[in-house]
Structure formats: C-alpha cells, structure tokens
C-alpha cells in the first residue's frame, strides 16, 4: 500500500479508538485478486473462496509509547516496527507490509497480488521459540515440529491476534527507534536481551489498493 494511504488510514484508526468498542471495528477488505478461476464451474466448490481472504495493513496501538500508530514492516523473515523493508513490489513501492488472512484456516500470509503468496507466517510458542514470529521465504515451506501456522484471527475490535494473544515489540539491538515483533506469550523479555519488550495491539487497516510484494 502507498505511504499516503497508510497515514490517512492510521489517522482514521486513531480517531476510531476514541469511539465505543461496538463502533471500533475497522472493516478489512476482501481481496479477490487472481484467486477465482474465470473458467471455474460456478456450482463447483472451490478450495479457498475469495471471501475467506482478508487483505490489510497493520498498525501498532499502544498509546503513550513511541510505537503508537506505526505501521508494521516485513523484512528478513520477520515483522518489525521502525525498520525499512526491502521488498520487490513489481514496480510499485510499499513502505509497509500488506497481509492476507485466510479466515477459515486462520493462516496468515504476506500479500503477493496474482496468487496466494507462499510467504506464510508461523510462530513457535514453546519454551524454545517463546512466541517468535517469522514468515517462510516462499521456497522452503516446511515448518518445524513446534511451529504453528494456524491460529491467526481478527477479533471484534478489528485487531489481529494469534490464539487470542496480542503482540510484543522488542528493541532491535541498541536502537531506540526499531523493534522486532513477536507474539506475546506472557514473557516481557522472551529473547533474553536484557531489555523489556512492549506489548501492543495490531490494528488491521483497510487497504483498497493493496500492493503485492515479494519480501526479502
Ligand atoms: C509471487 O507471485 C509471483 C507472480 O505470480 C510468483 O512468481 C512468485 O513465485 C510469488 N511468490 C511467492 C512467495 O508466493
Ligand atoms: C475490544 O476493545 C475493548 C475496549 O478497548 C476491550 O475492553 C476488549 O477487551 C477488546 N476485545 C478484545 C477481544 O480484545
Ligand atoms: C523490566 O520490567 C521489570 C518488571 O516490570 C522491571 O522490574 C525491570 O526493571 C525492567 N527492566 C528494564 C531493563 O527496563
């Protein structure tokens, strides 16, 4: 998605958060791009109906923190806040990651226009992984024994969660403006950096012009 759209959407979300909970839900966009075969028999059941796919960007909600209203970026197999992505968007530019959720299987992908991306998210909530959140590179899509790919969902407030958990932003190295994103499994310093991570809500933001990319 374009930066301009994203900022406008972020402002919208910020004002929306002042509304009562019932009105807070932010609509996500159904994306049917390239997912319905034009030659398909309409009476035939399709494996993944396009209406089961939601396409959106994510912004961090944690009022009073520097994370507030920042868009999530995808790079180096993970999600971050404050770090620039280096994605191949087929001639377009995209400063923030665009996601695609299969609401039926609860699987989360990066959005890649013409076909369902092979860049799929997985987490490991075991004592080994402690909520680490990564995406596959699209080539090797075999996940480890402790990896979970299913459990992503958008809640009643329009926020993405994994099995009811929100997210953590953990300081990236010594930087005070860059964070690595993981699933909040209840450990404030899951990766033993000696610095506390900050919990945040990942608000989904409608995108009417999703930009498909391959994320490096
Ligand atoms: C993204 O889409 C392009 C064009 O269809 C395709 O060549 C590529 O393999 C896809 N990449 C992933 C990671 O799905
Ligand atoms: C939705 O937002 C309201 C108000 O902020 C909050 O009380 C509630 O717990 C939220 N629901 C979920 C599922 O997070
Ligand atoms: C991390 O949080 C704990 C518990 O709130 C606190 O005692 C500790 O001082 C914090 N550590 C840092 C490095 O901020």
UniProtKB/TrEMBL annotation:
InterPro entries: PhiA_domain. Keywords: Signal. Residues 1-18 form the signal peptide. This is Uncharacterized protein. It comes from Phyllosticta citribraziliensis.
């Amino acid at each position: 998605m374009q930066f301009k759209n994203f900022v406008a959407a972020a402002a919208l979300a910020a004002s929306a958060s002042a509304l009562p909970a019932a009105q807070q839900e932010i609509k996500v966009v159904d994306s049917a791009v390239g997912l319905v075969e034009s030659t398909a028999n309409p009476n035939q059941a399709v494996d993944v109906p396009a209406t089961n796919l939601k396409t959106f960007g994510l912004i961090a909600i944690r009022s009073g923190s520097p994370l507030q209203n920042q868009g999530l970026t995808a790079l180096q197999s993970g999600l971050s806040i404050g770090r620039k992505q280096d994605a191949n968007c087929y001639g377009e530019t995209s400063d923030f990651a665009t996601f695609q959720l299969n609401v039926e299987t609860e699987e989360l992908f990066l959005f890649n226009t013409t076909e369902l991306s092979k860049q799929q998210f997985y987490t490991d909530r075991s004592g080994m992984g402690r909520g680490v959140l990564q995406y596959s590179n699209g080539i090797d899509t075999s996940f480890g024994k402790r990896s979970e790919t299913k459990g992503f969902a958008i809640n009643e407030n329009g926020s993405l969660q994994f099995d009811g958990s929100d997210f953590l932003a953990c300081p990236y190295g010594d930087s005070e403006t860059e964070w690595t994103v993981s699933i909040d499994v209840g450990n404030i310093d899951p990766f033993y950096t000696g610095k506390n991570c900050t919990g945040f809500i990942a608000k989904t933001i409608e995108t009417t012009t999703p930009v498909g990319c391959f994320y490096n």
